[in-house]
Design a protein that fits this description.
CATH topology of one domain: Beta-Lactamase
Radius of gyration: 47 Å
Strand order of the largest sheet: 10-9-8-13-12-11
Distance between the termini: 26 Å
CATH superfamily of one domain: PAS domain
Number of helices: 11
Helix content: 40-55%
Number of strands: 18
Order of helices and strands: HHHHEEHEEEHEEEEEHEEEHEEHEEEHH
Shape: rod-shaped
CATH class of one domain: Alpha Beta
Length: 498
């Protein structure tokens, strides 16, 4: 026979249930809500910190990118200026005999010689009232040189040679005996008090003659020289100005590294239209070892450029120095014709010195890859120890290099290398017609250390709060149970007596 539950027992169970159940429900719901909220908050905070970390890494790479970009832009600008500078263009023109300034200066010097001889004749005629002896005058002017082999001489109004350093020509008629028909113009245009000039060919060379007429003795005083010799003298003067400018550029264009000014150009050159080095400044000193660059691809491409365009080789190992350099070349124009190339070799090793102080996290570092994925600036590798990180053996990093970096993309990637989880940030760098990538890498743990710490601490605090709520709920249950028990017992006793 089933035993019936007493009224007292029923009241006690009901009272306990009414008190304990709400406490259990409230405690359980509160615990769940706290866990859910804390988990969401921590997750959002972690994501925000991770995003900020990626942006910080990318901003750091941007700073390195701007340094390198500015360094390259200086050389690009300098080579353009040098290609159009007065000294470079002046040298090219002088070498071709077309430097008007130097040619005019040369002609002025010849005019001075002719007019000096004319003054001597005038003084002689006025003071002594006699004509200068031809032999005596020939001896006095024999030491006068115009250019390298040019000289003064005298003819009369019939074109007969009166005074000449070549004795065999004295008495000869320039027009009839030597077939120098150009001297008809000299005879016909002679005029007292005027100094004039003509050009003519003599023994296969182009000559000029400056002349002035002295009617008292019927002498036409001439100063003759060769244009190519005059141009050579002009070219030598221009060459010195060109060297001075190269030296000034080398000294003035520097980059301050660790408080020390270092020249950024390891080589400065002028190469003529045939590919022959004319001026070669290497490490601040002029070199006598001038070679031909006619067969070099960079020279041939540079000669095909338009005015104002620049050839950029990218970072390469220089044959002259054996060091990583970036070659900039620009054509020098004489009119519409390219007459040579100026070349600046930028010291590429300075690039690493400029960016190596930028540390990412604790052990992260910047680096630069070229258009093929080869490291050109890196704490461990450079062009002297070529390493291509686009090679498949570099796994996830190689995929980022080939699919993002070499395609000119900007961003942040994540990969594992030698068991270490790493970030890599990258920004494209235009180098002439090529695309490099300025990058930086850092272990994820170093960059997310703060975020992970916050996440762990937040999780621990949430767990502590949860256990606190659980304990409080248990205490409420126990207290509620006791209250229900005693309350129901006090109610049941009077009823059971009845």
């Amino acid at each position: 026979m089933k035993k019936k539950m007493t009224l007292k027992t029923r009241l006690m169970i009901t009272s306990v249930f009414l008190v304990v159940l709400p406490a259990i429900v409230v405690g359980t719901f509160g615990f769940y809500q706290l866990r859910s909220f804390s988990g969401t908050a921590v997750s959002h905070s972690f994501d925000a910190l991770e995003k900020q970390t990626r942006e910080t890494l990318l901003n750091g790479v941007m700073a390195d990118h701007e340094k390198v970009r500015a360094y390259i832009d200086v050389a690009d600008s300098d080579v353009k200026k040098l290609a159009s500078s007065a000294n470079v263009v002046g040298y090219v023109s002088a070498s071709a005999g077309k430097n008007e300034m130097f040619n005019k200066l040369g002609q002025k010097e010849v005019v001075r010689i002719v007019e000096g001889l004319l003054d001597t004749c005038k003084v002689q005629a006025r003071v002594t009232q006699r004509k200068l002896d031809a032999a005596e005058l020939s001896e006095s002017i024999s030491g006068i040189k115009i250019g390298k082999t040019g000289y003064p001489f005298i003819i009369n109004s019939k074109a007969v040679v009166v005074v000449h350093p070549r004795q065999e020509l004295i008495g000869k008629n320039l027009i009839t005996d030597l077939n120098l028909s150009d001297f008809k113009e000299v005879i016909d245009s002679k005029k007292t008090g005027e100094t004039k000039n003509i050009s003519y060919n003599f023994e296969g060379r182009s000559k000029f003659v400056v002349y002035s007429y002295f009617p008292e003795w019927d002498w036409i005083i001439c100063g003759s020289g060769y244009w190519d010799e005059l141009s050579q003298e002009a070219a030598q003067a221009s060459l010195q100005l060109l060297k001075d400018e190269f030296k000034a550029i080398h000294a003035a264009t520097t980059e301050t590294i660790d408080g020390r000014a270092e020249p950024i150009y390891s080589q400065i050159r002028f190469v003529d239209s045939k590919g022959q080095e004319v001026v070669f400044l290497k490490s601040g000193q002029f070199s006598d070892k001038l070679g031909s660059k006619a067969g070099e691809d960079w020279f041939q491409q540079s000669m095909k450029l338009h005015k104002g365009e620049v050839y950029n080789s990218g970072a390469v190992v220089s044959a002259n120095t054996g060091k990583p350099e970036m070659r900039f070349a620009a054509p020098v124009f004489q009119g519409d014709t390219a007459s040579g190339v100026v070349v600046l070799n930028l010291d590429w090793q300075l690039v690493w010195k400029m960016i190596k102080g930028h540390v990412y996290g604790e052990t992260g570092y910047p680096y630069i890859v070229n258009q093929d994925g080869v490291l050109v600036s890196h704490p461990k590798y450079d062009l002297l120890t070529p390493t291509n990180i686009g090679d498949a053996k570099y796994g996830e990093l190689a995929n980022i290099v080939k699919n993002q970096m070499l395609k000119g993309e900007k961003g942040v990637g994540r990969y594992t290398f030698e068991g270490v989880d790493k970030y890599v940030a990258y920004i494209p760098l235009k180098v002439g017609g090529k695309t490099y990538s300025v990058s930086a890498t850092c272990p994820v743990e170093e960059f997310l250390r703060l975020a992970n710490k916050i996440k762990t601490e937040a999780g621990n605090q949430a767990m502590t709060a949860g256990w606190t709520i659980t304990l409080a709920s248990l205490i409420m249950i126990v207290i509620g149970g006791l209250v229900g028990f005693f309350s129901s017992n006090s109610i049941a006793k009077p009823i059971t007596r009845v």
